[in-house]
Inverse folding.
């Protein structure tokens, strides 16, 4: 039996393996959405598919990858025929995934003929086909319009590439070299992780690795149960709204959370959420459970290792056919907006239980916009931007400005990278003054970013929310500003719908996006006057009311 020091050594070694996989993707990937925006994740799993350790990447990915791997093992891939030199990939939301741009790859790890673990990588790819470049169509009404669906299959079998699958993928995407480059990066990352685990197994043996994995999960379960036990028992409810689904306009989408804390467990009832929508503002159960788990884990009052052991005390009720558990063939590409808003609603409910730990609503949305530039001759360019907004103010300080919050952990794409690779110019990039919610603690500011078209023609697609329903404040704090999207042509400004597909643009056109801030926390009248003076001096506000 392993001692506590050995367990801790193995736990940290597993986390280091996931981090090494992370660096491998970063250093070898091709597209700006992976290499610069860092929209990818890496993790290590036990032999049953439970998340054991993860890199410091995207919460929306990491809390869902275990759900997918377990579903693959239960339903789609025969574990007895999945060998250590096989790589299985899928992007299908209805096989346990999230949305089609996210291709996930898994590889088993064996020691002396015995499976001891899996390693996995997930990348948001720049394009997987469908109605629009970037595969983030705002007007899709079924998943078939959203791009190429890859069922769970072996991209590599017995160490040999399945060239037919690679050819099929290349034939159906707009930027095949970038996608295949990023997919190769994922495969390289898997081998780096597998090699690290094999080195560890050579020291502790297969029995030691399996014992350590089980105890690591038990330790996290015990820690989160203890943290839940310190929360007051009760039922806490909250409702937030999304603007619309892009098809049925001016019809808000309700996300209602009823959260019951009882002893050392939590039940989250999502039965009050609206039915699935016609447009792509839907989420699969894997996505929604990811948001629920992230909210509970971050509301706890002590640190613990983030892994599948944390999921055990939480029971989620989410009826099939709802916006948080969509039924095939509903489109789901905008699932991130649902999970952002579900996390906001979870925080609204948790604030009632532990008000000293929960911030006001952050921007709660991925501001996804895609430019497809069309030259006179030669290949078209594709740029996928995912902008962020302001963080919600926590009880003890102001919200962070233009900060990747909640389900995000993205970076921005540097202006130099955009302008060196595409006929686009970023003409303005700044914090958006006055966008944070008022409060004793002010909400963080959103941002403003403006692009100019330098090619003869281009197509622009946007799939965004928080243009009607503002990020809410807590404890008397005020809401943040909502978003704005504007086309500037020949000096004239025209509002663009935040859910638009293939808007034609010409050379010289500019598109300006202004994102929402974060909600304020506490009574604005109690804000320290020195902070008010600083806000005015910094230009965060223009007047005191």
């Amino acid at each position: 039996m392993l001692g506590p020091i050995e367990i801790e050594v193995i736990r940290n070694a597993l986390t280091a393996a996931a981090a090494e996989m992370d660096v491998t993707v970063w250093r070898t990937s091709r597209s700006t959405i992976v290499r610069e925006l860092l929209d990818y994740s890496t993790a290590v799993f036990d032999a049953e598919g439970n998340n054991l350790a993860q890199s410091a990447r995207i919460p929306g990915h990491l809390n869902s990858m275990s759900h997918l791997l377990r579903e693959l093992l239960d339903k789609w891939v025969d574990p007895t025929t999945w060998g250590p030199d096989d790589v299985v990939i899928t992007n299908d939301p209805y096989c346990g995934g999230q949305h089609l741009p996210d291709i996930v790859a898994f590889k088993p790890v064996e020691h002396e003929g015995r499976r001891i673990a899996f390693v996995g990588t997930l990348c948001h790819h720049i394009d997987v086909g469908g109605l629009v470049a970037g595969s983030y169509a705002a007007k899709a009404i079924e998943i078939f319009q959203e791009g190429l669906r890859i069922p769970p299959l072996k991209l590599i079998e017995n160490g040999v590439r399945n060239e037919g699958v690679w050819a099929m993928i290349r034939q159906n995407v707009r930027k095949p070299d970038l996608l295949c480059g990023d997919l190769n990066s994922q495969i390289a990352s898997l081998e780096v992780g597998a090699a690290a685990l094999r080195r560890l197994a050579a020291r502790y043996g297969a029995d030691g690795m399996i014992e350590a994995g089980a105890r690591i999960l038990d330790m996290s379960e015990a820690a989160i149960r203890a943290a839940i036990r310190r929360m007051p028992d009760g039922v806490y409810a909250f409702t937030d709204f999304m603007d619309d689904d892009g098809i049925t306009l001016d019809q808000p989408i309700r996300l209602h959370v009823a959260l019951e804390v009882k002893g050392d467990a939590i039940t989250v009832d999502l039965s009050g959420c609206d039915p699935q929508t016609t447009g792509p503002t839907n989420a699969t159960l894997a996505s929604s459970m990811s948001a629920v788990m992230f909210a509970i884990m971050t509301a706890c009052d002590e640190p613990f290792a983030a892994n599948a052991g944390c999921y055990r005390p939480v029971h989620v009720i989410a009826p099939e056919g709802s916006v948080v558990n969509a039924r095939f063939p509903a489109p789901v590409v905008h699932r991130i907006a649902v999970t952002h808003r579900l996390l906001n609603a979870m925080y609204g409910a948790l604030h009632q239980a532990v008000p000293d730990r929960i911030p006001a609503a952050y921007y709660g949305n991925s501001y996804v916009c895609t430019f497809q530039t069309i030259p006179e001759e030669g290949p078209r360019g594709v740029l996928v931007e995912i902008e962020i907004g302001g963080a919600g103010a926590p009880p003890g300080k102001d919200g962070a400005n233009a900060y990747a919050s909640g389900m995000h952990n993205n970076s921005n794409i540097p202006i130099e990278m955009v302008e060196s690779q595409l006929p686009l110019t970023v003409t303005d990039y700044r914090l958006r003054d006055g966008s944070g919610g008022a409060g004793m603690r002010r909400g963080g500011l959103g941002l403003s970013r403006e692009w100019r078209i330098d090619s003869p023609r281009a197509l622009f697609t946007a799939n965004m929310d928080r243009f009607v329903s503002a990020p809410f404040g807590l404890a008397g704090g005020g809401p943040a500003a909502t978003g704005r999207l504007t086309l500037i042509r020949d000096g004239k400004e025209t509002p663009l719908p935040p859910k638009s597909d293939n808007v034609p643009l010409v050379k010289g056109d500019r598109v300006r996006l202004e994102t929402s801030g974060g909600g304020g926390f506490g009574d604005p009248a109690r804000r320290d006057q020195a902070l008010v003076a600083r806000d005015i001096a910094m230009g965060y506000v223009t007047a005191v009311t």
